[in-house]
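# nightly structure sweep
# worker-07 picked up a monomer target from the shared queue
# config: single-sequence mode, recycle default, output format = structure tokens
# input follows
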Amino acid sequence: MRDGLAGPDRLWPAVLFALLLLPAPGFAQANLNARSFTDLDDTSDASSDNSSVSTSGGLTSILQRLSCAYGLNPGGNSASISLSAQMASYRIFNPSTNAFDQVSMRSYNGCPSGPTISIKPGATLRLKLFNNLPVETATTCPPDAAHNTPHCFNTTNIHTHGLHVSPSDSADNIFVEVPPSPKRNASFHQYVYELPADHPSGTFWYHAHLHGSTAIDVASGMAGVLIVRGSRPARSGAKPGSADIDTILHRRLLALPLREHVMLFQQIEYGCFDSATSTAPLVDTTTYEWTCPSGSTGKIRGYDNQLSFLPDKRPGQPANALNSTWIISGRYTQINGVVQPLFPSAAGFVPAGDIRRLRMVHGGNRDTINVKIVRANLSALGLADSTSLSAAQVNTAATAATNALAGDRTKSSQVTTLDRICSGETVTQLEFAEDGITLQSMIEKNVNTMNPGYRSDVLVAFPSPGLYCILDEAAAASATINFLPNAMKVKDRRLLSFARVGPGVNLPNTTVGNHTRYWQYIRDQLVAANPALPFQAKTDLTSLKLTAFAPTIPVDRAADETVKTGFEIDPTVTPPTFTVNGSAYNPSNAPIPGTLGDVAEWSIKANPIATHVFHIHTNPFQIVDIFNGAQASVFADSGDGCSQAELGTGDTEYCHLKGVVRDTVFIKPNYTVIMKTAYQDYTGKFVMHCHILDHEDRGMMAAVQIKTSAGAALDRLSAPFTAVSKDAGRWLARLRGKSEAQIALEASLCSARDFGSR
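# output follows
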């Protein structure tokens, strides 16, 4: 296991040894290598793939590239690691210009993505966060900033998204703030996370989460993947869900774990500017997309002209159209810091038939991602195509496909080329976990819809040698987080990556029932690789049921309490307000109360004007039902799949969600999600909010406070006196001559150095 304290002194000997093994690159290969997939997985397989690439990519050196790809996998029951929030300079490939843009971004450890951290259930993780970002000025961090006006962009903290750990003290406490300091490593916070022994294994992530700067930090790249690796096998008579899915995801020979790849999707909304103080990104006068002239440096400077919704002047848009600045910018989704990477590397191949585990994390802020894998049609490139291509032929195809796209400068021409090339067989993804929680059964997905905050673990087997397109598939705008009246009507098709698949074992064409050949092949391989499973678990595996490995939460009883919430935007005021139940976030607002041990049923609605992404900290939830705008359930009466009315919308992303346990869920306009959660293990204050993070920074967040039954009873007794105290405070303010507007304003202000009371 890798030492979590692996800093430069520990890392460089291994890196230098890897460099000695690298070939001297030719120009053409170096150009491809610059877009090589960087695997953020913390395994030796990933290290081998990363060290085979002989250029620095978008970073300043090969040493930096290997350092940024180095995962932290501390062993034992106690581990210590550190992260540094600091500026990073690197290059991002821009397909619209077929060139690299220089950027300067807030980051962890000076890298496009934070390092992958792996821990195990029952472990204690000590994470020291240093803030080495530039010291704030009064312009962006005024001493009395309003709560819901984004501010203090370089003041930060960290949130372990999806972990079931304490929200208090030095654990997952998002009320902590870590300001920058002029002296390196002088400002820091020591986090201590104690994972329960029964914590589920799975894919989680961490990111900046200080109210007022969350979106700008995450949109800069301040995020990383956090993996809980479990080793608890299935046992006869054990409680369902108490085993770890990791224990059956291994190869048939030698019981080696399946090769896995971490894919952190990020949406870096950088712009270039005509002066040191400008906040309006430069635009191309023809396309009205953002542009970065040679010699300029891309940055994210604020929320007025970035991380916002603005008039869309691009050709072909309706009059008075609005759009998110992410869409207007024309920027592209990155995978592990690279735009349109060659997977698994610029020189490597995935063998046909080799089952791969993809740990996909949506760490972006401003776009839905519809992951679809399609075989490329090589005849469209003027090349011979067959199911028995050689590695050399696949290499030629990869070069031809990237060259074909290189000539396309507009989004429409890119879509035309993608439609021509990416038109072969769809590779079915077998999803077995969402938001880090193993599902009751594997699900076949041709399109895997992910919204900000989502995680999806899938198994993929490429059927034969060839070139494959990993796409962000087109969708109706109403099925994406960028829906807004008078906004775009369709999300266009984008390339996420080209996958290079070499000779191996071709998948047979046999199928069972209504299942695809991918389901059949992966099922057969898993059953053969796990002959020693207990009878019931092995029987379940023959139909890809995962009962032994799927954690449950104790919500199958009547709820003790109910919570009704609504995400609302009011565009009729200036600036628009972003609220939960009509109130923008304010620390003086009474938190949503809960009692330790209770089951709560929540109703969460998005108002008709926009979509939202609900996320709650500390405790996951189980989806009970989802109602459309007509207040009809989207699920079929049988409980299996969607109703005909929902299928008629053309969007099927809700169809498998009944009974699924997760921590983040997309809510369409005027839809309502009903979920149940159990307040287990921890008391304390945490938050629920919209995971479109600029919505959260602008006020779409509310606190939740869980107390023991005795504490809750005391609150009920003291509530009348608390209300009288607040009224008395307002009465005294009026006696001092303050207007109602002044009283309201003072209630909305906060100190930039006292976030703990925000």
